[in-house]
Amino acid sequence: MTTKMYIGIGIRRKRDDKTLDVYYPEILVKDNEPVFASSENNILTKESLSDEQRLALSGTYSEQILNMTVDNTQKYAKSDIVISVYSNLKDDVKTTEEAYFKLQILSQRLQKPHDINLTGLFGILHNIAWTNQGPILAEDCERQRIKAYAQGEQLIVTHVDKFPYLVNYHIPKGTRVASGSQVRLGAYLGDGTTIMPAGYVNFNAGTLGKAMIEGRVSAGVIVGDDSDVGGGASIMGTLSGGNNAVIEIGKSCLLGANAGTGISLGDGCTIAAGLYVYAGMKVSLVDHDNNPIDKNGNKVESGKNIIKAKELSGQANLLFIKDSQTGTVLCKPNNKQITLNEALHTND
Fold this sequence. Notes:
It is a single chain. This protein has 348 residues and is α/β, with parallel strands linked by helices. It folds into 3 domains: 4-124, Alpha-Beta Plaits (2-Layer Sandwich), CATH 3.30.70.2010; 127-161, Trimeric LpxA-like enzymes (Wheat Germ Agglutinin (Isolectin 2), domain 1, 2-Layer Sandwich); 168-344, Hexapeptide repeat proteins (UDP N-Acetylglucosamine Acyltransferase, domain 1, 3 Solenoid), CATH 2.160.10. The protein is 12% helix and 29% strand. The strands form 5 sheets. Strands 8-9-12-15-18-20-24-25-22-23 form a 10-stranded mixed beta sheet, with no helix packed on it. Strands 10-13-16-19-21 form a 5-stranded parallel beta sheet, with no helix packed on it. It has a 4-stranded antiparallel beta sheet with strand order 2-1-4-3. A hairpin with a 2-residue loop joins strand 5 and strand 6. The longest helix is centred in the N-terminal third of the chain and has 12 residues, at 96-107. It starts with a strand and ends in a 15-residue tail after the last strand. The mean pLDDT is 93.
């Protein structure tokens, strides 16, 4: 089996000994490139490249970056050109350069969520004020703001966080993101995905194809092709109570407005508007005519059809609704498959 080697050609910004960010416009995937074998898991500078290594870095943006002259005159952060080389993406994150490398591997669709190891990411990343003048350490922000005002300029801070916005580093092909502040770097957006203004996608999460996202896709969550996460809907993530439980939403699923789930959904499932299905919720199983049934579809006495929602996690073609008179949460077979509007998801 051939080992894949990932080589990122990036522009790094540092403040003294702290790496603020690294922008990798291009990450090349090579079949075990021998000229970089001794450099694996290292950070190289363009000055240290051999002629053979430089020749191996052919790509869309490589030559432009390697031929750049970086101007660091009176800049808060000093920039330089770096080349990152990794073949093992299963190790914990050890450097800020590696953190940004892995986040951009996800956002460039070179690996899917959960396929690489992001352990240690939070401890490595610095808390940054993201501004119109570049990333600034949060503790330095007011000094830089005073300096900007004294020069007749304005320092505009978009947010203070360890993560920048995805769209400031990469725009995945075939996607629309109506509000850049709602998608973190490290999100994986499938071709045909549309993120509406209220939609949100965290890092190490995302969509595997066409999807309409008007609700929240939390860290670790994966949404399948042709699925719709409605306005205000919420999917429990690994950082919001799910812990090690990875929630997956299958193909052609619908989470209605203000709905939510703490269990995985198989293909063709629907959760009615306003209903949050959590793992310990008591659910009554019924057939199309509302007759009590067990998990195998056999008719049973009323009361013997009640199970916890987690027992249905990952099953396909289920409809979760709440009886408006009794408040009972019902689960019945779902015969209606949703279809996304093609015109809204052709994002050329």
